[in-house]
Design brief:
Length: about 350
């Protein structure tokens, strides 16, 4: 496995590249142009700037997360063709600096979803928390106020401009069924996968987080059956997965290690983190350690080891520990501990 670490860009992340290079075994950053609105072409000068910054610290920029998909594509509107053409140009542009994998998702309106960004764990650290009853009771607008208006940083997937016209967006989705979403995803893939093939970039869809419908919006990348269906939409190795253990694992019926084995060869990027699941679909993110959460991270890493995984891995979210001031879920300390835990398991497996 090749370890990488998410970085939000100069002036947009509390963690400097100088520190990232000091985490053992981290060879590159997972990056994006976070100031580019979905649907716009990423310009070469901005892409090259990130490359230069990473080069300075000997870090690669092989993995992009995310190139966001414009809502019109997910909605299947006539304007989608324009945004798909732009998406292709962005693929072409990032290929010029050597990008190998693009992570993206196909979740309507909301990217990931939580009800509390700073829920306290027993040890006094805080972490991202999802409480199902709150999602049922809350108006989506209130949630946006809470999440998107985070005072320190704009939250990835929750960019204010993206959610500006939330009620209109909800209205637009009111007639979109899961089957429509499948259809729109297929249309998108049939257009972009040949371009990805041409430029040798593996497309890696991120599962829905959490892996079930929220606010009545359709969600489809949620379980093993649906992922199998997704991979067949365009049966090419370039149409692959970002297998996120924490997202899929929030549903206890999902067996992540089993999915790793089943989808080996189509997994280009692994997000590994633990979650502790409570009743009623509530869950909290925990340290990566198996005993701290509900997922057997040892078994998941073993599955990757068994399949001879040579793709990219990143520790996913971390808790907020040691009074670190950071983006919710994206501090240095707990993610660095996560990296070391993953390497610890991997190295032990290597020794047999
Ligand atoms: Mn993830």
């Amino acid at each position: 496995m090749r370890m990488v670490f998410r970085w939000f860009g100069e002036g947009n992340d509390s963690v400097p590249l100088k520190y990232i290079r000091q985490i053992p075994g981290v060879e590159g950053i997972v990056w994006a142009l976070h100031d580019m609105p979905p649907g716009e072409v990423w310009p070469m000068d901005k892409i090259e700037k990130v490359k230069q910054q990473a080069d300075e610290y000997g870090l690669n920029i092989d993995v992009v997360e995310s190139v966001n998909v414009h809502e019109d594509i997910k909605l299947g509107l006539p304007t989608r063709d324009y945004y798909i053409e732009n998406y292709k140009k962005t693929i072409e542009n990032v290929a010029k600096v050597g990008v190998k994998v693009i992570c993206y998702n196909f979740m309507p309106v909301f990217d990931w979803l939580r009800t509390d960004l700073y829920k306290e764990l027993e040890d006094g650290s805080t972490a991202l928390y999802y409480e199902d009853s709150k999602i049922r009771d809350i108006n989506p607008m209130e949630l946006v106020e809470k999440i998107a208006k985070n005072p320190q940083f704009s939250m990835p997937g929750w960019e204010p401009e993206r959610l500006e016209d939330l009620s209109k967006l909800f209205e637009a989705y009111s007639n979109v069924t899961e089957e429509d979403l499948w259809h729109n995803l297929q249309y998108f893939l049939e257009e972009i996968i040949p371009v990805a093939e041409k430029h040798d970039i593996k497309m890696a869809i991120h599962p829905d987080d959490p892996p079930w419908s929220v606010f009545g919006l359709p969600r489809i990348i949620t379980n093993k059956e649906n992922i199998s269906r997704f991979l067949k939409l365009v049966d090419s190795p370039y149409n692959g997965l970002t297998l996120c253990s924490g997202s899929l694992g929030a549903n206890p019926t999902n067996n992540v290690a089993e999915m790793v084995r089943e989808f080996a060869g189509r997994i280009h990027f692994a997000h590994i983190r633990n979650v502790k699941i409570f009743k009623h679909g509530d869950f909290i993110e925990t340290s990566h350690r198996t005993s701290d959460g509900s997922l057997d991270i040892c078994d998941i890493v073993k599955a990757y080891h068994d399949i001879g995984f040579t793709g990219y891995v990143r520790p996913d979210h971390g808790r907020h520990i040691w009074d670190e001031e950071c983006r919710p879920g994206y501090g240095l300390y707990d993610r660095a501990l996560g990296v070391m835990y993953l390497w610890g398991i991997w190295d032990a497996l290597e020794q047999g």
